[in-house]
Amino acid sequence: MKALSLSIASPLLVAIVLIASPSHARPGGLGGGDRGDWFEKADGNHNGRVTRAEFAAYRQAQFDQLDRNRDGVVSPADFPRLAKVRPDAYARLTAMLDQADANGDGAISRAEMNSAPPRLFNLADADHDGEVTQAEFVRAREAMQAAMAARRQ
Q1: Cα–Cα distance between 14 and 100 in angstroms, integer?
Q2: 1 lies in some domain
Q3: How many domains would you assign to the chain?
Q4: 63-81 residue pLDDT tens
Q5: Domain that holds residue 126
Q6: DSSP letter string over 55-97?
Q7: How far apart are CA 145 and CA 48, in angstroms?
């Protein structure tokens, strides 16, 4: 099965589900943190730049939050409420998880996530210097939002 980075799943999961922790919850929703908030969370030293190493650490923290049932993997079983409340979003989520499932066991392990390329980071790193600046992040977020709006029409 083709491996797809959970870094791509993360924005979808944040937008659709909640990146799975009460700290990301929004009143009146499914939790749904801001899919574009990864920059501030990943900028570990708060210097306005996110390095590949900082992004890797951020992804590890996301794994811990996504593994809601604490079974050591991220799978559709971590999102039972989404299946009931938003079946369309749940279908997209499970399709994305299936793509990210390198060994075909129906779940994403920490090792699978670690070996997946940081696609979100790579998309935002416009000048390919190994760092994402605030300006690069804003441009990438705006492009993603425009693409999502276009798909809705």
Answers
A1: 16
A2: no
A3: 1
A4: 888 899 999 999 999 999 9
A5: 6-152
A6: HHHHHHHHHHHH-TT-SSEE-GGG-HHHHHH-HHHHHHHHHHH
A7: 22
